[in-house]
Design brief:
By secondary structure, the protein is an alpha/beta fold. The protein is built from 14 helices and 22 strands.
Length: about 450
């Protein structure tokens, strides 16, 4: 919502907003852009001369401002409706969808287009370091959107990505997620089937190779399709792959065509696969291999994706957004490739709507296998879930110990910092994983390490 507000302001509209809580980095972004954001919801916040109200999906029909809008007949739109109406008309939308990797892949796609001088617009669910922003209108032909399968608004329970008019798309993966709105994997696949049917016959769909759920879904696409992945049978694949402490080098093949050598600073096999998707699509759009390589090599990543926040006395403190078992496993495996000699601590807060539920009770323990030591925090806002639906974090730690791992359940951030900071040694890496703020544990741990030093 803040990203959209920023683009609307740049387009010349007067924009105001309301939220229950406003905090950095979005609060500082809005303030810098001159966009007032009121804390709390009140009918009087909808000013008499308001022409349009954009309603986020976290807001219910009983919200006092929503009630004012409905009572007064003020025009309103959902977030994705507004994005499509104001910024996707007369553009070529490139939509990045999938359970995992869409933020990084969308950011990389936008940067490759930017470094080629094409001035793309973009709206991405993460802070893209190269741009110093998470959105931009752009003036070029292409607009890159991170296509979210989560619901749209209280008045539209369908997925957001159905509004984005995809002409080109990347489908990174399909797994069960969002247990608060989807009942099972079949419902997830049904949503993605609707998405791929939107791509016109003159568009293009790039789908990850080797994912059976993706394979089942893309059969419904009427547009041309291409695959990418590490398997040589994929349409776009990597050869001569070499990981090192600075990233990965590889060659890209498309059938018998050799696009030459590439170098990426991103960590892990999953990010190599993401890069292949971008390389394949960018090449299909007409960019040269040299231009694509320039963008790939200069990409600085997205905040909260393996983001190093500091190093104190030889201990690296890292922030990561991982909260699904697959994302946790791939993130930690990537860190193991990049830091083979470091002792890796994984500290995890079950915070997302799905990770707080017991749907992944059995899947979480093996996902931490690449880590040396694991700390599981208590689930966020446990009181908002019935006891029978909650993940049991204490059992996750116990199951990890049953797998031979050194693991503890430590409920609060204060206890975690107090417990692990004296045990950290030079050469350790602490990866703090949560889909939210994790109660400021990042700063607290860095402060404790500074005090100890």
């Amino acid at each position: 919502m803040a990203a959209l507000a920023r683009m609307l302001k740049a387009a010349g509209y007067r924009v105001t907003g309301s939220d229950a809580n406003v905090y950095p980095p979005m609060s500082t972004l809005l303030e810098r852009e001159g966009i007032p954001c009121r804390v709390g919801f009140r009918p009087e916040n909808i000013e008499p001369d308001t022409n349009l109200v954009i309603i986020g999906n976290a807001v219910s029909k009983t919200n006092p401002e929503v009630q004012s809008v409905l009572d007064r007949g003020v025009p309103y739109r959902s977030f994705p409706q507004a994005l499509a109406e104001f910024f996707l008309t007369d553009r070529t939308p490139i939509v990045i969808a999938g359970t995992h990797g869409k933020t990084t892949t969308a950011a990389l796609m936008a940067w490759v287009l930017e470094s080629a001088g094409l001035d793309p617009g973009f709206l991405i669910g993460g802070w893209v370091i190269n741009f110093g922003a998470n959105s931009r209108p752009g003036t070029g032909r292409y607009f890159v959107v991170e296509g979210d399968e989560y619901d749209t608004a209280f008045f539209d329970k369908g997925p957001k990505f159905l509004h984005y008019r995809p002409h080109a798309a990347i489908l990174t993966s399909i797994e069960f997620d969002h247990g608060d709105i989807y009942n099972d994997l079949d419902e997830i696949k049904s949503a993605f089937r609707k998405f791929v049917r939107l791509i016109p016959s003159d568009g293009i769909l790039f789908a990850v190779d080797g994912d059976p759920n993706v394979r089942a879904v893309i059969r419904d696409a009427s547009c041309p399709r291409s695959t990418y992945g590490l398997n040589p049978t994929a349409g776009w694949c990597a050869e001569d792959v070499r990981f090192d402490s600075d990233g990965v080098s590889f060659r890209v093949k498309n059938g018998r065509r050799d696009l030459g050598p590439f170098r990426s600073p991103m960590v892990g096999r999953h990010n190599l696969v993401n890069a292949l998707a971008v390389i394949g699509l960018a090449s299909t759009l007409g960019l040269s291999s040299e231009s694509i390589q320039k963008g790939i090599e200069s990409f600085q990543g997205v905040k909260r994706r393996q983001e190093v926040l500091g190093e104190v006395a030889g201990v690296i403190v890292m922030d990561d957004f991982a909260h699904h078992p697959t994302a946790i496993r791939e993130t930690l495996a990537g860190l193991r490739l990049r830091y083979p000699r470091r002792r890796i601590w994984a500290v995890f807060e079950p915070r997302s709507a799905t990770s707080r539920r017991n749907v992944f009770q059995k899947e979480f323990p093996p996902s931490f296998d690449p880590a040396d030591l694991i700390v599981i925090a208590d689930i966020f806002a446990s009181e908002k879930l019935p006891a029978g639906l909650r993940l049991d974090p204490k059992q996750v730690a116990e199951d990890l110990r049953g797998l031979g791992k050194e693991a503890e359940f430590i409920p609060t951030t204060e206890e975690i910092v107090r417990t692990i900071s004296p045990r950290l040694k030079s050469g350790d890496l602490v990866c703090l994983m949560s889909s939210g703020g994790f109660d400021g544990i990042h700063g607290k741990l860095l402060k404790a390490l500074e005090q100890r030093r």
